[in-house]
Amino acid sequence: MLIKVSLGNFGIEFPTCVKAEMEKEIYGEGIELLGGWMRKYKFKRGFKPTKERLEEQITLHFGEFEKDGEIYIVRYGAIEELRLWFDGKLLCVESKTNPRVDPETASQTLKTYNRFLEELTGYTAKERQKMMKKEIEG
């Protein structure tokens, strides 16, 4: 059985065994959020992991960003803080979301985040979900 978390980790499904290990909180309107998350994303062939592309996509999708050394910090919609950096050829993303936003803001934030990741990495949300399932199932 899989659980689906719709905003805190941006729509990724996890096996129920993982659920027991998570501190799960549910805040009104059925939006399930998990505490801060850190994910690593691969890049599809032809999508290069460069600072220039990352800055371009952040600006296109979220507007402004801050930098703390090599870490890019974004605040947008339901995202209280999104920290992005590279680990070799992987994009590392740590997120913290606001559980008290209205459903429309939560939905729009999720759509924008998924478009951002797809245009940056080349993988759709569905493809990222499949890769995550494979990784968890080992």
Based on the model shown, name its key terms.
138 residues; TATA-Binding Protein; 4 helices
Which architecture would the CATH scheme give at its second level? Answer: 2-Layer Sandwich
Proportion of β residues?
25-35%
Total strands: the figure is 9
Mean pLDDT: 79
Count of DSSP helices? 4
Classify the fold: give the CATH topology: TATA-Binding Protein
User: Over the alpha carbons, how many angstroms does the gyration radius reach?
Assistant: 15 Å
Q: Could you describe the largest sheet, including whether it forms a barrel? A: 5 strands, antiparallel
Cα end-to-end separation = 16 Å
| Helix proportion range | 25-40%
Which oligomerization state do the chains in this entry correspond to?
A: single chain
Number of domains: 1
Strand order of the largest sheet: 5-9-8-7-6
User: Shape from CA axes?
Assistant: globular
Order of helices and strands: EEHEEEHEEEEHH
The CATH C-level class name: Alpha Beta
Class computed from helices, strands and strand pairing? alpha+beta
Report low-confidence residues grouped into runs of 5 or more.
1-35
